[in-house]
Amino acid sequence: MWRAGLKWMFLIIGTTIGAGYASGRELWQFFGHESGLAILLFTLFFSICCNVIMNVSYEKQSTDYLPVLGDIVGVKLTKLYDVMIFLYLFTTTVVMIAGSGATGQAFNFSYWWGVLVIAVCLIILFLKDISGLLAMNQVILPLLLGGLLYILLIFTMDQELSLFSHLSEQRNWTAAFPFTALNILPLIAVLGAIGNKVRSKQEIWIASLGSGLTLGTISFIYNNSLIQIADELLLYEIPLFAILKHYPFGMLIFMSILLWFAIFTTAAAGVLGIVSRLQSIINVPIWLLVILILIAMIPLTTLGFSTLISYIYPIYGILNLYVLTRLLLYPIWKKMENNK
């Protein structure tokens, strides 16, 4: 039970903690100053949403996101959100591939080498369906989370920062809504594809609470660190590098490798959501679908990593607010529907 719950927890975190999040760019886009309450609300909302999505997926024993989506947003809006999820997964996976290129550039490699490496790795990963992704998450994510937390805590101690010095200033609390909403659609896509593999509701509780608390804690510490170097962030495509410049080059290398794996896990989760949906329409091997999808994505990465996040993420965060509302109120309106 615990092992299975942790497996799903790492799948959820791997879907969420990609290039935008792990680099700090996404956190800074939504949070920043006066956001402690916003991050607390995000933790609560995120756990509730994961719990609802996994329960619906488990009850329907789903293998792709469409049945889960239909139950959450209703029959009338299913087609609209089906298209939205597909576009979301497509564009955010483009962001991840661009993030791989940006990471390569930080070490003076060609942008296209970074893009090529992640594309080849994605094709190799999906030669062995979903099991390869789950196995990779269980190895990579504890390293990534541990490394990220270590860097942030060391930075907090070195700079003598107080984690709770601005508790009276919480005017940005509304940021919790678009930030949570932004991360909901990929979770519907990915968790909708594993409903037939979940064995008990205990697994669901472990996965949803564990992922919410883990992401909430790291988000709070990370955001607090970024506030201290706010003036420098304009100079960096990847804000994490503004923190790492205070430390030895070896630390930069280590965290850059882990950052790349964060990018890779989210790209893989996005590709999983896309191919599981397409396979219900087109009966072709997963690896072939992955190749075709990547061929379509790669030209779009030329827009640049921070540009893509700056424009795409806030738009999706707002568009997904309806889905977030449906998920948070799911037990209430489901009970009302059953009583009719």
Describe the 3D structure:
It is a single chain. With 340 residues, the protein is mainly α. The chain has one domain (2-331): Hydantoin permease (Orthogonal Bundle). It is 76% helix and 0% strand. The protein has helices at residues 2-16, 19-22, 25-30, 36-60, 66-73, 75-105, 111-125, 129-158, 176-182, 184-191, 201-228, 240-244, 249-279, 286-297, 305-319, 321-328, 330-339. Helix 1 (2-16) crosses helix 10 (184-191), helix 6 (75-105) packs across helix 7 and helix 9 (176-182) crosses helix 15. The longest helix has 31 residues, at 75-105. The model has no long low-confidence stretch (mean pLDDT 82).
